[in-house]
Description:
The complex is a heterodimer.
Chain A: H1 18-44, E1 53-55, H2 58-72, E2 73-77, E3 80-83, E4 90-96, E5 99-101, E6 103-107, E7 112-118, E8 123-128, E9 132-136, E10 140-146, E11 152-158, E12 170-176
Parallel strand pairs in A: 3-6, 4-7, 6-12
Antiparallel strand pairs in A: 1-10, 2-3, 4-5, 7-10, 8-9, 8-11, 11-12
Chain B: E1 7-9, E2 16-18, H1 19-50, H2 59-92, H3 101-123, H4 141-170, H5 180-210, H6 219-230, H7 232-253, H8 260-273, H9 290-297, H10 299-325, H11 334-337, H12 344-367, H13 381-408, H14 417-443, H15 466-499, H16 532-557
Antiparallel strand pairs in B: 1-2
Amino acid sequence: MAITPPEQRIWWKERIARVELYWIVIAFLWGLTMFFMMIYWHGAGEQNLSSEAYRIKPQQFSQKTQEMIDAYTVRQEGMYPVVHPPPGSDVYLIARLWQWWPILELEKDQSYRLHLSSMDWQHGFSLQPVNINVQVHPDYEMVITIKPDQAGEFGVVCNEFCGIGHHTMVGKLYVVERSQGD
Amino acid sequence: MATIMSFRTCPTTGLRVERSAERLIKANAVIAVVFLAIGGLFGLLVALTRWPAVHFLPADWFYLALTAHGIDVLLVWIIFFEMAVLYFASAVLLNSRIALPWLAWTGFGLMLVGAITVNVAVLQGQSTVMFTSYVPMMASQSFYLGIILFAVGALCGCVVFFGTLVVARRERTYQGSIPLVTFGALTAAIIAVFTIASGAIILVPTWLWSLGIVNHIDPIVYKTIWWGMGHSSQQINVSAHVAVWYAIAAMVFGAKPISEKVSRMAFLMYILFLQLASAHHMLVEPGFSAEWKIFNTSYAMYLAVLGSMVHGMTVPGSIEAAQRRRGYTKGFFEWLRKAPWGNPAFSGMFMSLVFFGFIGGISGVVMGTEQINLIMHNTLYVPGHFHGTVVAGTTLAFMAITYLLVPLIFRRELRMKKLAQWQPYVFGIGVAGISLFMMGAGTLGVSRRHWDMTFADAQLPFDYPAAAFMMMGLNGLFAVLAAVGGVMFIVVVVGSVFFGRKLADDEKPAYPPAPPTATVAQYGSEPEMRIPGTTLLVGVFFIAFVLYYFVNWKYLSEVWPLS
């Protein structure tokens, strides 16, 4: 029994039952399949998170964001500037207690280099209802190349607990059809 | 040094049980159950708040209750109970005295003081930082200190366990190799040492930071090392509850492991590879290379998962073999149909096995896939997964073995047997529901650790789909069911331990029924062991695993391209 010492003293020479052996082989091969699936996706899949990241101070990140806002703001929504940066450019999104700043307006089927960083605590970038979820840290700037493939209005929910106002931290992101004349 | 020892002989198993080991097991198990009750209550409050129609607690109390829930059940209940399991698997199963009882009591005291310190810190309201306490959010210094004290206490318990193995070997209290259950407990204890070391490496500096002595803790370094503790501690649970499955299979059926070698190798896989799981929490953090993520998140090509999949066959397989030998040989499943479903030790253990595999296990592997994590990170899918592993798996298994420990160690007759009989079903189904509906809500994008999914006070509006609200309502309902099951457990255990009839020293308890003699389970002269029912069940599991895995790649392929 499992609660007594093995009946056969030389238990490591016991023959392994065939059914058990088959299962070990199948399970092992399945593990290999899952392992190589991740590697395969790096070549064949379109959803692979970049590992590009930099150390940065909150003030520096805030400054870069402000420069983008100053250059490309197209309208105001309440207190939020709506920024429409050119396709292919570097776009910045600030996470701070308790807002995502500013509102970005991107064009469908265009790539952008999205920079994310936090001004204070950790936050969670959760793009809904697309369901892309990325962790945002203070002192680190993460750069992801994204290519929105659907137009519409999207929510950016914070999904890392960031204090008492956490549940009020919702941002917005627009994706519009490609503008005329490009 | 002269030590006065007293032993009694267990009338059921014939093992000698040392009184001081017995007292330690009792003390740790009782405190464990107390914290299960406290933490479970916090959990119910959390679930009632996330139930949109009820939305019970105000925001500050919700986050406070969520912090306390995580600490009290994930840490305090489970580790205290694991101390009881370690002492049982060493001193009792090896027929030995316990080594260094004073150290065991010191450890017990430290853990208790630590647990109370953390709880006071959280309830004072200055440490609402969640179980994970990610920097740079800061808790009061007593929060970190409490966890450190608790961890040091747990380390003392591990030392006592190792010491007892040495004592038993030196005093030749058993013949041959240690039993499989003890081997599993040894695995758990070794992982615990690694876990506590990781905890010390990060929490001691963090404590100093909260005192103003250290001025900066890097958030990514913190998270990487913290999860060396946070996730590894879940591997302690896996090892411990798998050991408990084997123990219950042996105690209820007299089941013999199909192969000692294979089961021990499977435990060894845990020691070698499970610690890499810290990476599961770093898949969408800035700056980690794909190579690092792939190697670590897959536990070096899923070798630890292999361990669990092996146990998934050997545990039910050993039960099937034992039942078939007893004559339940008809068809694929007579052995299972005629199993003692009215014995809470068995029903709890078997549900723990099934839910851990199908719900907790599969979801964990899927979520821990490098790219798929992107569509699940920090959504409710995460707590959905770990309620499948830690509650439906570990907690249910620990509840199940408690029904055997009450008569065997506490020497009390189990009271309210009808209630006990239903308890694993109520709790198990409740928890399975919680896990599945949280996973469902997570797939729809709902955030974990979030007070208000309607975003009523947010500066900008956003609406989750209606289906997500339904999921959270169902989650609330099943949480109430699980809470009822939890209360049933506490009532039965407290009622039995304090008010149950005392068993005489030489009296065999009538309930749960004593295990059949071990000889029933010897394979004897049969050339090949037959376990067709288990093979079929494992086949179903495997197909479910493969399908669910690829369905999630499909989901991933539908989100925006990103690189």
